[in-house]
Predict the 3D structure of the following.
Amino acid sequence: MPPAVFLLALLSTVGIAAFTVIKVAALFTARRGSIPSDVAERLDELENDVQGLRQELAATQERLDFAERLLSTVREDRRIGG
């Protein structure tokens, strides 16, 4: 195959692929901008709920860490001096 024909075939293939990717990306961005207000409100509410759950989980993990340190201290004291 002559280099010019190969180059033409390669450029057309890459061009078609790039055009397709750009069109698909444009469709996705157009969809995101058209979220109904009730869905956006529900999404905001869910985000707030998740943030609250994260805070509760962090507090629970801190309590668990404290309890584990306390238990390990008691076990260490029993082992050392009984």
